[in-house]
Write a structure and sequence with these properties.
about 40% helix, 17 strands, about 425 residues, 2 domains, alpha/beta, Nuclear Transport Factor 2, Chain: A
């Protein structure tokens, strides 16, 4: 059995998704708030680790880049030894082989412990992720059409985190075939920040600029955002590794592990283009964010029965114009809670499925289908229709609905 740690994070989550798509059974581990089918274990809790590792033969080990990384991952290695685990696939970082500062140096200390432990091991050292372009650069691109760093003309060969996950799965499914290997994973093309800006411009069909700034200005900006000093120092040190040119290699290691060509930056940007579009001044969101906001609202408010989300998502002056809404409800979150809370009581298992979702200016149009079992009769009903939401300042302001009459689709059985 395989154990995947860090499933709530980007890399561990991608590995779990890749294993699921491959139909491979595994155990998913999170530090807290485990969902059904997951095991909860803190890297600092030996008892929880023992339970999580019971019956496990292979472990994918990943940890957030925090100062405690060395101690926490060392705890897991010790627990693996005690539990009889045969092989550990360690997610390290590019630079762990030749850079004695920042995150790479932390990862190297864990690598050394793993190699000396006697466990079977494979080490993955990925370069920077394409997804970081969205996480770190997209906010200023949306707002200002630019992103900022002290990278000069240094190039990096970014790669897709999903390709890292796919490479990890290749190893996890055949650990003996990769025992004792250290794989440095780079993307298929090395680009400077200015070249990345040009690629984003093409994908988003808008001018995006890279603005090179002094390192001290970047440091002050990060500190001004409230980032802790240790994190700022580590990021600046890591950036110096990049500006040295050591993150610009392009090799065939990733492609060999994947058995296919890695995801290119152009393919990634085509998929993510909405993330780089301007923010709508009315909604406070991009089009993609408006769609995701409404999708998540339905999921939380209806499917997960989370009435409290109304206080977050609805404006105090929210008005519901839907013909399905009974008269006399108050405006704002209170009215929405009363209406949907009543639906919970009548149909305890009510569920909404989003069939289509389109954002247009400050409105999001949703085509959906609703199903639920009536508590009084046990009969199962279904209805569908169109719902239109108006968003202002990142909150729901108005709703219109055109829904079909509910019709019976069978019993609860």
């Amino acid at each position: 059995m395989i154990l995947v740690t860090g499933v709530s994070g980007s890399t561990g989550g991608a590995v779990a998704e890749a294993l699921s798509r491959a139909g491979q059974p595994f155990r998913a581990m999170v530090r807290s708030e485990a969902k059904p089918g997951q095991v909860e274990a803190d890297f600092g809790n030996p008892a929880q680790l023992r339970a999580a590792l019971e019956g496990i033969g292979t472990v994918f080990l990943v940890c957030s880049p925090i100062p405690e990384l060395v101690a926490l991952e060392s705890n897991v290695i010790d627990a693996c030894l005690a539990a009889g685990v045969k092989h550990v696939v360690l997610n390290s970082a590019l630079g762990a082989g030749d850079y004695d500062k920042s995150f790479p140096s932390w990862h190297r200390r864990v690598e050394d412990k793993l190699v000396a432990s006697g466990l079977g091991y494979t080490i993955l050292r990925p370069n920077g992720f394409l997804q970081n372009l969205v996480a770190y650069n997209a906010p200023s691109i949306r707002a200002q059409g630019a992103f900022y760093a002290a990278m000069g003309d240094a190039k990096t060969s970014l790669l897709d985190v999903r390709d890292v996950a796919a490479a990890a799965v290749t190893v996890l499914l055949n650990p003996a075939g990769h025992a004792g290997k250290v794989y440095e994973l780079n993307g298929p093309e090395a680009l400077s920040q200015a070249e990345i800006a040009a690629r984003i411009s093409l994908a988003a069909d808008r001018l995006v600029r890279y603005v090179d700034i002094p390192e001290e200005a970047q440091r002050n900006s990060m500190l001004g955002l409230g980032m802790p000093v240790w994190q700022v120092d580590a990021l600046i040190d890591l950036q110096r590794y990049y500006t040295s040119g050591k993150a610009a290699a392009v090799t065939d290691v990733l492609e060999t592990l994947l058995g296919r060509a890695p995801v290119t930056i152009d393919a990634f940007l085509a998929e993510s283009r909405d993330r780089f579009l301007p923010v709508n001044s009315k909604t406070g969101f991009t089009s993609a964010e408006s769609r995701e906001f409404v999708r998540n609202h339905f999921e939380e408010f209806v499917n997960r029965k989370n009435l409290d989300i109304a206080d977050v998502n609805f404006a105090p002056e929210f008005v519901d114009h839907g013909s399905d809404v009974p008269p006399g409800l108050p405006p704002g979150p209170a009215g929405a809670k009363a209406y949907v809370g009543g639906a919970y009581q009548k149909f305890p298992d009510i569920h909404v499925e989003i069939l289509d979702l389109v954002a247009d200016d400050d409105r999001v149009v949703v085509r959906n289908r609703w199903t639920g079992t009536e508590s009084s009769s046990g009969k199962r009903y279904e209805f569908s229709g169109i719902v239109i939401w108006r968003i202002a300042h990142r909150r729901l302001m108005e709703r219109w609905a055109c829904l079909t009459p509910a019709h019976e689709v069978g019993g609860a059985g």
